[in-house]
Amino acid sequence: MLALVLLSFPVNYGHAFLEPYQPIKKSGITTIMQMAKIKQGYHHEGEKDDSSTTMRVASKNSDRDKINNQNNNVKASITSMASIALAISLCFCLSPPAAYGAGYVSLTPEQKFTAEAWRVTDSTFLDRTFNGQDWFQIRQDLVKTKYKTMDDAQNSVAVMMSKLGDKYTKYLTPAKYQSLVDTATGTLAGVGVEIATNADRLPVVSDVEPNSPAQKAGLLPKDVFLEGDGAKFDKTSTPDDVALRLRGPVGSKVGVTVLRDGTTTVDFIIQREPIKVTSVRNYLAKDNKQLGVIRIKSFSGTTSSAVQDAVSELKKKGAKSILFDLRSNPGGLLPGGIECASLFLEANKPVVFVVSNKGIIDAQETFIDGFDTETNLVILVDHNTASAAEVFTAALKENGRAKVVGEQTFGKGIIQTIRELSEKNGGVAVTVARYETPKHNDINKSGIAVDQSTDVECPKDDAPACLPSELL
User: Fold this and answer.
1) 75 assigned to active site
2) What is the CATH number of domain 188-271?
3) Which one from 289, 412, 424, 469 is the annotated catalytic residue?
4) What is the tens place of the pLDDT at every residue in 428-449?
5) pTM
6) Which residues contact 3 (CB under 8 A, 6 or more apart)?
7) Residue ranges per structural domain of the chain
8) Residues 212, 356, 387, 397: which is the catalytic one?
9) Per residue in 257-272, pLDDT tens?
Protein backbone atom coordinates (compact mmCIF):
# COMPACT_ATOMS: atom_id res chain seq x y z
CA MET A 1 0.00 0.00 0.00
CA LEU A 2 4.88 -4.39 9.05
CA ALA A 3 9.92 -4.32 15.55
CA LEU A 4 11.50 -1.74 13.21
CA VAL A 5 9.89 -2.09 9.89
CA LEU A 6 10.85 -0.18 6.85
CA LEU A 7 8.26 0.78 4.66
CA SER A 8 5.63 0.88 2.54
CA PHE A 9 -0.02 0.95 4.25
CA PRO A 10 -0.13 0.43 -0.34
CA VAL A 11 -1.07 2.41 -3.35
CA ASN A 12 -2.41 5.24 -1.43
CA TYR A 13 -1.59 2.97 1.44
CA GLY A 14 1.63 1.16 0.55
CA HIS A 15 4.13 -0.53 2.90
CA ALA A 16 7.82 -1.24 2.96
CA PHE A 17 8.89 -3.50 5.74
CA LEU A 18 12.40 -4.38 6.82
CA GLU A 19 12.34 -7.99 7.91
CA PRO A 20 13.35 -7.85 11.58
CA TYR A 21 15.12 -11.12 12.07
CA GLN A 22 14.96 -13.20 8.90
CA PRO A 23 18.11 -12.65 6.83
CA ILE A 24 17.39 -11.58 3.27
CA LYS A 25 19.15 -14.15 1.11
CA LYS A 26 17.07 -14.33 -2.03
CA SER A 27 19.37 -12.27 -4.22
CA GLY A 28 22.41 -12.23 -2.01
CA ILE A 29 21.83 -8.81 -0.49
CA THR A 30 22.45 -8.66 3.23
CA THR A 31 22.45 -5.66 5.56
CA ILE A 32 24.87 -5.35 8.45
CA MET A 33 21.85 -5.33 10.74
CA GLN A 34 20.82 -8.67 9.30
CA MET A 35 24.35 -10.10 9.35
CA ALA A 36 24.57 -9.30 13.07
CA LYS A 37 21.45 -11.37 13.60
CA ILE A 38 22.85 -14.20 11.51
CA LYS A 39 25.92 -14.32 13.77
CA GLN A 40 23.61 -14.48 16.77
CA GLY A 41 21.84 -17.48 15.26
CA TYR A 42 18.55 -15.87 14.25
CA HIS A 43 18.06 -17.96 11.13
CA HIS A 44 14.58 -18.67 9.95
CA GLU A 45 13.85 -22.39 10.14
CA GLY A 46 14.65 -24.04 6.83
CA GLU A 47 16.73 -21.15 5.52
CA LYS A 48 20.34 -22.03 4.83
CA ASP A 49 23.32 -19.77 5.42
CA ASP A 50 24.69 -18.96 1.99
CA SER A 51 28.04 -17.23 2.28
CA SER A 52 28.61 -17.04 -1.47
CA THR A 53 26.59 -13.87 -1.96
CA THR A 54 26.86 -12.03 -5.25
CA MET A 55 25.71 -8.64 -4.06
CA ARG A 56 25.15 -6.99 -0.70
CA VAL A 57 23.85 -3.78 0.77
CA ALA A 58 25.79 -2.16 3.60
CA SER A 59 24.17 -0.66 6.63
CA LYS A 60 26.37 2.12 8.07
CA ASN A 61 25.90 3.86 11.38
CA SER A 62 28.17 5.75 13.67
CA ASP A 63 26.44 4.42 16.75
CA ARG A 64 26.49 0.61 16.44
CA ASP A 65 25.46 0.10 20.04
CA LYS A 66 22.23 1.98 19.45
CA ILE A 67 21.59 -0.07 16.35
CA ASN A 68 22.18 -3.32 18.25
CA ASN A 69 19.85 -2.21 21.02
CA GLN A 70 17.27 -1.30 18.46
CA ASN A 71 17.63 -4.68 16.76
CA ASN A 72 17.19 -6.53 20.04
CA ASN A 73 13.96 -4.62 20.60
CA VAL A 74 12.54 -5.71 17.27
CA LYS A 75 13.88 -9.25 16.76
CA ALA A 76 10.61 -10.82 17.98
CA SER A 77 8.60 -9.31 15.14
CA ILE A 78 7.54 -11.14 12.02
CA THR A 79 6.86 -9.40 8.70
CA SER A 80 4.88 -10.53 5.74
CA MET A 81 4.76 -8.93 2.37
CA ALA A 82 2.28 -6.25 2.14
CA SER A 83 1.53 -5.64 -1.17
CA ILE A 84 -0.74 -4.03 -3.37
CA ALA A 85 -3.67 -3.44 -1.12
CA LEU A 86 -4.96 -6.57 -2.79
CA ALA A 87 -8.15 -8.12 -1.64
CA ILE A 88 -6.03 -11.15 -0.95
CA SER A 89 -2.95 -9.90 0.81
CA LEU A 90 -1.62 -7.12 2.96
CA CYS A 91 1.88 -6.17 4.04
CA PHE A 92 2.52 -6.30 7.74
CA CYS A 93 4.85 -7.31 10.53
CA LEU A 94 3.75 -9.16 13.54
CA SER A 95 5.28 -9.48 16.96
CA PRO A 96 4.28 -11.41 20.06
CA PRO A 97 2.47 -9.57 22.83
CA ALA A 98 4.62 -8.03 25.53
CA ALA A 99 4.34 -9.24 29.10
CA TYR A 100 2.41 -7.14 31.53
CA GLY A 101 4.49 -4.87 33.75
CA ALA A 102 4.44 -5.09 37.53
CA GLY A 103 2.43 -1.89 37.70
CA TYR A 104 -0.51 -3.58 35.99
CA VAL A 105 -1.34 -5.88 38.89
CA SER A 106 -4.13 -3.74 40.36
CA LEU A 107 -5.71 -2.86 37.01
CA THR A 108 -8.75 -4.51 35.46
CA PRO A 109 -8.24 -6.51 32.23
CA GLU A 110 -9.67 -3.59 30.27
CA GLN A 111 -7.33 -1.10 31.93
CA LYS A 112 -4.35 -3.41 31.39
CA PHE A 113 -5.24 -3.56 27.71
CA THR A 114 -5.37 0.22 27.33
CA ALA A 115 -2.10 0.62 29.24
CA GLU A 116 -0.40 -1.96 27.04
CA ALA A 117 -1.62 -0.30 23.82
CA TRP A 118 -0.37 3.05 25.12
CA ARG A 119 3.02 1.57 26.07
CA VAL A 120 3.60 -0.10 22.70
CA THR A 121 2.70 3.11 20.89
CA ASP A 122 4.80 5.23 23.25
CA SER A 123 7.91 3.11 22.74
CA THR A 124 7.80 3.02 18.95
CA PHE A 125 5.91 6.02 17.50
CA LEU A 126 7.99 8.22 15.23
CA ASP A 127 6.54 11.61 16.22
CA ARG A 128 7.88 12.16 19.71
CA THR A 129 5.62 15.20 20.15
CA PHE A 130 2.65 12.84 19.80
CA ASN A 131 0.89 15.42 17.66
CA GLY A 132 0.97 17.94 20.50
CA GLN A 133 -1.12 15.74 22.79
CA ASP A 134 -0.61 15.56 26.54
CA TRP A 135 0.50 11.99 26.02
CA PHE A 136 1.05 11.00 29.64
CA GLN A 137 -2.26 12.51 30.70
CA ILE A 138 -3.90 10.37 28.04
CA ARG A 139 -2.41 7.30 29.72
CA GLN A 140 -3.65 8.41 33.11
CA ASP A 141 -7.16 8.90 31.74
CA LEU A 142 -7.09 5.49 30.04
CA VAL A 143 -6.07 3.49 33.11
CA LYS A 144 -8.38 5.36 35.49
CA THR A 145 -11.50 4.87 33.38
CA LYS A 146 -13.90 2.18 34.57
CA TYR A 147 -14.83 0.27 31.42
CA LYS A 148 -18.04 -1.73 31.28
CA THR A 149 -16.78 -4.01 28.51
CA MET A 150 -13.61 -4.74 26.55
CA ASP A 151 -15.32 -3.19 23.52
CA ASP A 152 -15.45 0.10 25.42
CA ALA A 153 -11.72 -0.17 26.16
CA GLN A 154 -10.95 -0.95 22.52
CA ASN A 155 -12.94 2.07 21.41
CA SER A 156 -10.93 4.23 23.82
CA VAL A 157 -7.67 2.93 22.34
CA ALA A 158 -8.95 3.63 18.83
CA VAL A 159 -9.71 7.22 19.86
CA MET A 160 -6.26 7.54 21.45
CA MET A 161 -4.58 6.39 18.23
CA SER A 162 -6.68 8.74 16.10
CA LYS A 163 -5.44 11.74 18.11
CA LEU A 164 -1.87 11.14 16.91
CA GLY A 165 -2.60 12.70 13.52
CA ASP A 166 -1.21 9.79 11.50
CA LYS A 167 -3.68 7.76 9.48
CA TYR A 168 -1.23 4.85 9.35
CA THR A 169 -1.07 4.62 13.14
CA LYS A 170 -4.26 2.97 14.36
CA TYR A 171 -5.85 0.29 16.47
CA LEU A 172 -6.64 -3.05 14.81
CA THR A 173 -9.64 -4.89 16.21
CA PRO A 174 -9.21 -8.60 16.94
CA ALA A 175 -11.09 -9.40 13.71
CA LYS A 176 -8.85 -7.15 11.59
CA TYR A 177 -5.68 -8.35 13.23
CA GLN A 178 -6.68 -12.00 12.89
CA SER A 179 -7.55 -11.36 9.26
CA LEU A 180 -3.95 -10.33 8.67
CA VAL A 181 -2.61 -13.38 10.47
CA ASP A 182 -4.94 -15.75 8.62
CA THR A 183 -3.98 -14.20 5.31
CA ALA A 184 -0.31 -14.74 6.06
CA THR A 185 -0.88 -18.37 7.00
CA GLY A 186 -3.02 -19.06 3.95
CA THR A 187 -6.31 -19.73 5.73
CA LEU A 188 -8.07 -16.79 4.11
CA ALA A 189 -8.86 -16.16 0.50
CA GLY A 190 -10.01 -13.28 -1.64
CA VAL A 191 -11.54 -12.38 -4.96
CA GLY A 192 -8.38 -11.46 -6.87
CA VAL A 193 -8.39 -7.71 -7.39
CA GLU A 194 -5.77 -5.05 -6.98
CA ILE A 195 -7.15 -1.99 -5.18
CA ALA A 196 -5.98 1.58 -5.60
CA THR A 197 -7.48 5.07 -5.38
CA ASN A 198 -8.53 7.25 -8.31
CA ALA A 199 -8.05 10.98 -8.81
CA ASP A 200 -11.07 11.61 -6.56
CA ARG A 201 -9.40 9.52 -3.79
CA LEU A 202 -12.09 6.84 -4.06
CA PRO A 203 -11.13 3.14 -3.82
CA VAL A 204 -11.21 1.50 -7.22
CA VAL A 205 -10.32 -1.73 -8.99
CA SER A 206 -6.81 -1.14 -10.27
CA ASP A 207 -6.31 -4.55 -11.84
CA VAL A 208 -7.94 -7.98 -11.94
CA GLU A 209 -5.97 -11.21 -11.61
CA PRO A 210 -6.40 -13.53 -14.61
CA ASN A 211 -8.80 -16.43 -13.98
CA SER A 212 -9.70 -15.04 -10.55
CA PRO A 213 -13.22 -15.02 -9.04
CA ALA A 214 -13.35 -11.27 -9.70
CA GLN A 215 -12.58 -11.71 -13.38
CA LYS A 216 -15.12 -14.51 -13.72
CA ALA A 217 -17.76 -12.39 -11.96
CA GLY A 218 -17.10 -9.43 -14.28
CA LEU A 219 -15.32 -6.82 -12.15
CA LEU A 220 -13.38 -4.39 -14.35
CA PRO A 221 -10.49 -1.96 -13.82
CA LYS A 222 -11.68 1.53 -12.77
CA ASP A 223 -14.84 0.16 -11.10
CA VAL A 224 -15.35 2.28 -7.96
CA PHE A 225 -16.06 0.34 -4.77
CA LEU A 226 -19.29 1.54 -3.12
CA GLU A 227 -19.93 -1.36 -0.78
CA GLY A 228 -18.37 -4.67 0.24
CA ASP A 229 -19.54 -7.30 2.71
CA GLY A 230 -22.09 -4.86 4.15
CA ALA A 231 -19.68 -1.95 4.62
CA LYS A 232 -20.01 1.26 2.62
CA PHE A 233 -16.94 2.96 1.12
CA ASP A 234 -16.21 6.62 0.36
CA LYS A 235 -13.26 9.02 0.09
CA THR A 236 -12.21 8.22 3.65
CA SER A 237 -11.88 4.50 2.84
CA THR A 238 -8.42 3.15 2.14
CA PRO A 239 -7.56 0.21 -0.12
CA ASP A 240 -6.84 -1.72 3.07
CA ASP A 241 -10.39 -1.06 4.30
CA VAL A 242 -11.77 -2.57 1.11
CA ALA A 243 -9.30 -5.45 1.13
CA LEU A 244 -10.24 -6.46 4.68
CA ARG A 245 -13.88 -6.72 3.61
CA LEU A 246 -13.16 -8.74 0.48
CA ARG A 247 -10.94 -11.29 2.22
CA GLY A 248 -12.52 -14.20 4.06
CA PRO A 249 -12.65 -17.99 4.44
CA VAL A 250 -12.16 -20.12 1.34
CA GLY A 251 -15.50 -20.91 -0.28
CA SER A 252 -17.43 -18.12 1.45
CA LYS A 253 -19.23 -15.47 -0.58
CA VAL A 254 -19.02 -11.70 -0.44
CA GLY A 255 -21.37 -9.09 -1.82
CA VAL A 256 -19.73 -6.22 -3.75
CA THR A 257 -21.29 -3.08 -5.22
CA VAL A 258 -19.37 -0.89 -7.66
CA LEU A 259 -19.98 2.23 -9.69
CA ARG A 260 -19.07 1.72 -13.36
CA ASP A 261 -18.33 4.56 -15.80
CA GLY A 262 -19.58 7.05 -13.23
CA THR A 263 -23.20 6.23 -13.94
CA THR A 264 -24.09 2.55 -13.49
CA THR A 265 -24.30 0.70 -10.19
CA VAL A 266 -23.45 -3.00 -10.49
CA ASP A 267 -23.88 -5.67 -7.80
CA PHE A 268 -21.86 -8.88 -7.53
CA ILE A 269 -21.89 -11.97 -5.34
CA ILE A 270 -18.38 -13.44 -5.53
CA GLN A 271 -17.05 -16.64 -3.99
CA ARG A 272 -13.69 -16.26 -2.29
CA GLU A 273 -10.89 -18.54 -3.42
CA PRO A 274 -7.15 -18.86 -2.72
CA ILE A 275 -5.36 -16.43 -5.01
CA LYS A 276 -1.81 -16.70 -6.27
CA VAL A 277 -0.55 -13.31 -7.37
CA THR A 278 2.11 -13.04 -10.03
CA SER A 279 3.96 -9.97 -8.81
CA VAL A 280 6.52 -9.85 -11.64
CA ARG A 281 5.59 -10.21 -15.31
CA ASN A 282 7.63 -9.50 -18.43
CA TYR A 283 6.99 -9.12 -22.16
CA LEU A 284 8.43 -7.47 -25.27
CA ALA A 285 6.80 -4.30 -26.56
CA LYS A 286 4.38 -5.00 -29.39
CA ASP A 287 5.86 -2.44 -31.77
CA ASN A 288 9.46 -2.46 -30.57
CA LYS A 289 11.05 -5.86 -29.97
CA GLN A 290 14.14 -4.17 -28.55
CA LEU A 291 12.14 -2.84 -25.60
CA GLY A 292 11.46 -5.28 -22.77
CA VAL A 293 8.81 -4.54 -20.17
CA ILE A 294 8.83 -5.74 -16.56
CA ARG A 295 5.74 -5.04 -14.53
CA ILE A 296 6.27 -5.23 -10.75
CA LYS A 297 3.01 -5.26 -8.78
CA SER A 298 4.69 -5.30 -5.35
CA PHE A 299 8.05 -6.00 -3.72
CA SER A 300 8.90 -9.05 -1.62
CA GLY A 301 11.95 -11.04 -0.63
CA THR A 302 11.84 -12.94 -3.94
CA THR A 303 11.22 -10.00 -6.26
CA SER A 304 14.87 -9.28 -7.03
CA SER A 305 15.56 -12.82 -8.23
CA ALA A 306 12.40 -12.74 -10.34
CA VAL A 307 13.43 -9.40 -11.84
CA GLN A 308 16.94 -10.64 -12.58
CA ASP A 309 15.48 -13.68 -14.35
CA ALA A 310 13.10 -11.44 -16.29
CA VAL A 311 15.90 -9.14 -17.48
CA SER A 312 17.98 -12.12 -18.62
CA GLU A 313 15.01 -13.62 -20.44
CA LEU A 314 14.15 -10.37 -22.22
CA LYS A 315 17.76 -9.82 -23.27
CA LYS A 316 17.86 -13.29 -24.80
CA LYS A 317 14.82 -12.28 -26.85
CA GLY A 318 16.65 -9.20 -28.14
CA ALA A 319 15.71 -6.46 -25.67
CA LYS A 320 18.20 -3.58 -25.54
CA SER A 321 16.25 -1.40 -23.07
CA ILE A 322 14.03 -2.20 -20.10
CA LEU A 323 10.84 -0.42 -19.04
CA PHE A 324 9.74 -1.02 -15.45
CA ASP A 325 6.00 -0.58 -15.03
CA LEU A 326 5.37 0.39 -11.40
CA ARG A 327 1.92 1.89 -11.82
CA SER A 328 -0.27 1.15 -8.78
CA ASN A 329 2.61 -0.60 -7.04
CA PRO A 330 1.98 0.16 -3.34
CA GLY A 331 5.34 -1.05 -2.10
CA GLY A 332 5.69 -4.23 -0.08
CA LEU A 333 8.78 -5.45 1.70
CA LEU A 334 11.41 -2.72 1.80
CA PRO A 335 14.40 -5.04 1.31
CA GLY A 336 12.73 -6.19 -1.89
CA GLY A 337 12.89 -2.65 -3.25
CA ILE A 338 16.47 -2.22 -2.05
CA GLU A 339 17.60 -5.52 -3.56
CA CYS A 340 15.97 -4.77 -6.91
CA ALA A 341 17.56 -1.33 -7.13
CA SER A 342 20.96 -2.80 -6.22
CA LEU A 343 20.77 -5.16 -9.19
CA PHE A 344 21.32 -2.15 -11.46
CA LEU A 345 23.74 -0.01 -9.43
CA GLU A 346 27.51 0.08 -9.21
CA ALA A 347 29.36 -0.48 -5.93
CA ASN A 348 29.26 2.10 -3.14
CA LYS A 349 26.04 3.75 -4.29
CA PRO A 350 23.52 4.95 -1.68
CA VAL A 351 20.12 3.27 -1.93
CA VAL A 352 18.10 4.65 1.00
CA PHE A 353 18.53 6.21 4.44
CA VAL A 354 16.23 5.10 7.24
CA VAL A 355 15.75 7.37 10.28
CA SER A 356 14.37 5.78 13.45
CA ASN A 357 12.19 7.45 16.07
CA LYS A 358 15.38 7.96 18.11
CA GLY A 359 17.07 9.82 15.25
CA ILE A 360 19.40 6.95 14.37
CA ILE A 361 20.25 6.92 10.65
CA ASP A 362 20.72 3.56 8.95
CA ALA A 363 22.43 4.06 5.57
CA GLN A 364 21.84 1.33 3.00
CA GLU A 365 24.30 1.24 0.10
CA THR A 366 25.69 -1.30 -2.37
CA PHE A 367 28.90 -3.19 -1.66
CA ILE A 368 29.71 -4.36 -5.19
CA ASP A 369 28.47 -3.87 -8.74
CA GLY A 370 25.04 -5.18 -9.63
CA PHE A 371 24.51 -7.78 -12.32
CA ASP A 372 23.45 -5.15 -14.91
CA THR A 373 24.87 -1.64 -14.67
CA GLU A 374 24.64 -0.66 -18.34
CA THR A 375 21.24 -1.49 -19.87
CA ASN A 376 19.10 1.59 -20.53
CA LEU A 377 16.28 1.76 -17.94
CA VAL A 378 12.99 3.66 -17.86
CA ILE A 379 10.51 3.60 -14.96
CA LEU A 380 6.78 4.29 -15.48
CA VAL A 381 5.02 5.50 -12.31
CA ASP A 382 1.69 7.01 -11.32
CA HIS A 383 0.09 8.64 -8.26
CA ASN A 384 -0.43 5.20 -6.70
CA THR A 385 3.25 4.22 -6.86
CA ALA A 386 4.26 4.19 -3.21
CA SER A 387 6.67 3.18 -0.48
CA ALA A 388 9.14 0.43 -1.45
CA ALA A 389 8.31 1.17 -5.09
CA GLU A 390 9.35 4.77 -4.45
CA VAL A 391 12.56 3.57 -2.79
CA PHE A 392 13.37 1.57 -5.94
CA THR A 393 12.46 4.51 -8.20
CA ALA A 394 14.39 7.15 -6.25
CA ALA A 395 17.47 4.93 -5.94
CA LEU A 396 17.74 4.46 -9.70
CA LYS A 397 16.74 8.02 -10.57
CA GLU A 398 19.02 9.85 -8.12
CA ASN A 399 21.98 7.64 -8.98
CA GLY A 400 21.51 8.56 -12.63
CA ARG A 401 20.64 5.01 -13.56
CA ALA A 402 17.07 5.38 -14.89
CA LYS A 403 14.71 7.95 -16.34
CA VAL A 404 11.35 8.26 -14.59
CA VAL A 405 8.21 9.04 -16.59
CA GLY A 406 4.48 9.22 -15.87
CA GLU A 407 3.10 11.28 -13.01
CA GLN A 408 4.17 12.32 -9.50
CA THR A 409 4.30 9.32 -7.16
CA PHE A 410 2.19 8.95 -4.02
CA GLY A 411 4.72 10.05 -1.41
CA LYS A 412 4.90 7.37 1.27
CA GLY A 413 8.13 8.03 3.12
CA ILE A 414 7.27 6.59 6.51
CA ILE A 415 7.48 3.09 7.95
CA GLN A 416 5.06 1.06 10.04
CA THR A 417 5.11 -1.93 12.30
CA ILE A 418 2.12 -3.99 13.39
CA ARG A 419 2.27 -5.27 16.96
CA GLU A 420 0.01 -7.85 18.55
CA LEU A 421 -1.59 -7.04 21.92
CA SER A 422 -2.07 -9.55 24.73
CA GLU A 423 -5.11 -11.71 25.43
CA LYS A 424 -6.18 -11.70 21.77
CA ASN A 425 -7.19 -8.06 21.95
CA GLY A 426 -6.08 -7.24 18.42
CA GLY A 427 -3.06 -5.10 17.65
CA VAL A 428 -1.76 -1.67 16.78
CA ALA A 429 -0.20 -0.37 13.60
CA VAL A 430 2.40 2.29 14.45
CA THR A 431 4.60 4.52 12.29
CA VAL A 432 8.10 3.86 13.62
CA ALA A 433 10.54 5.44 11.17
CA ARG A 434 10.94 7.47 8.02
CA TYR A 435 13.24 7.19 5.05
CA GLU A 436 15.15 9.53 2.75
CA THR A 437 16.27 9.07 -0.84
CA PRO A 438 19.96 8.78 -1.86
CA LYS A 439 20.12 12.57 -2.09
CA HIS A 440 18.47 12.90 1.33
CA ASN A 441 15.12 14.03 -0.05
CA ASP A 442 12.12 13.46 2.20
CA ILE A 443 9.35 12.41 -0.19
CA ASN A 444 6.64 11.86 2.40
CA LYS A 445 3.38 13.51 1.28
CA SER A 446 5.14 14.96 -1.76
CA GLY A 447 6.27 12.03 -3.87
CA ILE A 448 8.92 11.74 -6.55
CA ALA A 449 8.87 14.17 -9.46
CA VAL A 450 9.12 12.54 -12.88
CA ASP A 451 11.69 13.45 -15.50
CA GLN A 452 8.94 13.59 -18.10
CA SER A 453 5.16 13.69 -17.69
CA THR A 454 3.31 11.10 -19.75
CA ASP A 455 -0.12 9.52 -19.96
CA VAL A 456 -0.51 6.68 -17.44
CA GLU A 457 -3.85 5.30 -18.61
CA CYS A 458 -2.49 2.78 -21.11
CA PRO A 459 -3.43 -0.90 -20.54
CA LYS A 460 -1.52 -2.84 -17.90
CA ASP A 461 -0.39 -5.28 -20.59
CA ASP A 462 0.82 -2.51 -22.93
CA ALA A 463 2.87 -0.07 -20.85
CA PRO A 464 4.92 1.17 -23.86
CA ALA A 465 1.72 2.83 -25.13
CA CYS A 466 2.20 5.37 -22.34
CA LEU A 467 5.67 6.38 -23.53
CA PRO A 468 6.41 9.28 -25.87
CA SER A 469 7.95 8.22 -29.17
CA GLU A 470 11.42 9.53 -28.32
CA LEU A 471 11.69 7.01 -25.49
CA LEU A 472 10.73 4.01 -27.59
Assistant:
1) no
2) 2.30.42.10
3) 412
4) 999 999 999 999 999 999 999 9
5) 0.72
6) 20, 73, 74, 76, 77, 79, 93, 95, 417, 419, 432
7) 188-271, 280-349+366-413+439-471
8) 387
9) 999 999 999 999 999 9
